[in-house]
């Protein structure tokens, strides 16, 4: 005899697939939702199912809804000649929140970590050189975390990008503590790291 209806078990399993959500937390979340009214549950599931229309921007790999190119890449107010390379979407988000950057982004979808199978070919680099040429990019900012994987990725990117003509390659200033995550830096620290960026 099942303790709870099958659909509840199923949702607990779904939550359990999320990063950082163990079995107990998954149960707690599902029981929390079950105490809410139907309107809440309907909105929640609708918001979730609407994500199926979201895809990756063919230029920068940011999220885009229906359109092939995201709103940042198509915004005429953004400076196409400065390109900020980040590891993940949340890094783009924190840099946008500083309000201090007007260029475009390029999301790598990870950093080099050979032990975990993240090799050069897994990074989103296929169209990078082409983007730099097409947008007449003059500066690439390597906004990666100052940890071992981030440093290895900065070295690798510097090696391939330094072959392109007339391109300044910079990295965030040492305001960020070694081994720390851009994600957790406060806005002021990140703002300073961005404006005091230096050549690699
Ligand atoms: Zn884009």
Q: What can you see in these coordinates?
A:
With 200 residues, this protein is α/β, with parallel strands linked by helices. The chain has a domain at 74-199: Dna Topoisomerase Vi A Subunit, Chain: A, domain 2. It has 8 helices and 7 strands. Helix 1 (6-16) crosses helix 2 and helix 5 packs across helix 8. The N and C termini lie far apart (63 Å). The model has no long low-confidence stretch (mean pLDDT 93).
Main features:
200 residues, alpha/beta, Dna Topoisomerase Vi A Subunit, Chain: A, domain 2, five-stranded mixed beta sheet, two-stranded antiparallel ribbon, 7 strands, 40% helix, binds zinc ion
SSE map:
Layout: H1 6-16, H2 23-34, H3 38-49, E1 54-56, E2 63-65, H4 71-74, E3 79-86, H5 89-98, E4 103-107, H6 128-134, E5 139-142, H7 148-161, E6 168-171, H8 187-195, E7 198-199
Parallel strand pairs: 3-4, 3-5, 5-6
Antiparallel strand pairs: 1-2, 6-7
Helix pairs in contact: 1-2, 5-8
Bound molecules: zinc ion (ZN).
Zinc ion binds next to helix 4.
